Amino acid sequence: MFYYYDPTYLLLIPGLLLALYAQFKVNSTFNHWKQVPSRIRMTGADIARAILDGNGCRDVRIERVAGSLTDHYDPENGVLRLSAEVYGSHSIAALGVAAHEAGHAIQDAQDYKPMRIRANLVPLANIGSNMALPLFMLGLIMSWEPLTKIGIFAFAFSVLFYLVTLPVEFNASNRAVTVLASGYLPDDEVKGVKAVLSAAALTYVAAALQALLQLLRLVLLANRRRDD
Q1: CA trace torsion 195, 62, 108, 71 (10° rounding)
Q2: What are the strands, taking DSSP E only, across the chain?
Q3: Residue 207 CB coordination number (10 Å)
Q4: Edge to edge, what strands does the sheet with 61-65 contain?
Q5: Of 37, 87, 111, 125, which has the fewest beta carbons less than 10 angstroms from its beta carbon?
Q6: Would you please indicate which residues are annotated as catalytic (active-site) residues?
Q7: pTM of the entire structure?
């Protein structure tokens, strides 16, 4: 009862509200701009290929992947995967998303440090995501402070992963806007790209905030149990 019914749950509300708003924003913004075709008549796959080739990433393959907004760059296999609504679309939204993912491939090729740090954090972040809360709860139930601290410490790696993700995503978006504005798209279409990528960035901000607030909540719970 101590864990499930306590006022510290209120700490999570701002992060939850921002996450809901971010999801609404990214869906509505993407849905709007995917209806607006670019005047250059290049598809998402075309623009990604052009950006990759222009930045020395000719060996990066581009593949179509199922799903909506499932676009991502796979650094282990050197593959940029674009969803069907981005791969073959001429829309401004598609070009923005494709350019963003190409930005990740360029980060990889240029050994962008935050991206390397994030990749190294993945195993620790996975452990933190899967084991932190069970360890923390077990520590509370057993009133064993070292175990609660281990749970908090493990969850901190997940928080760090989310924080390091922010500069990686922001940098990829900045690269996308810069290259598209350098001669591919006119100003009014670049404005649409910025709107799409800004909405997407908000989802990462919301995830980082949720993680930070959850970490703070765990610390408060541990301190309260210690004081009892």
Answers
A1: 40
A2: 61-65, 72-74, 79-83
A3: 19
A4: 61-65, 79-83, 72-74
A5: 111
A6: 101
A7: 0.89
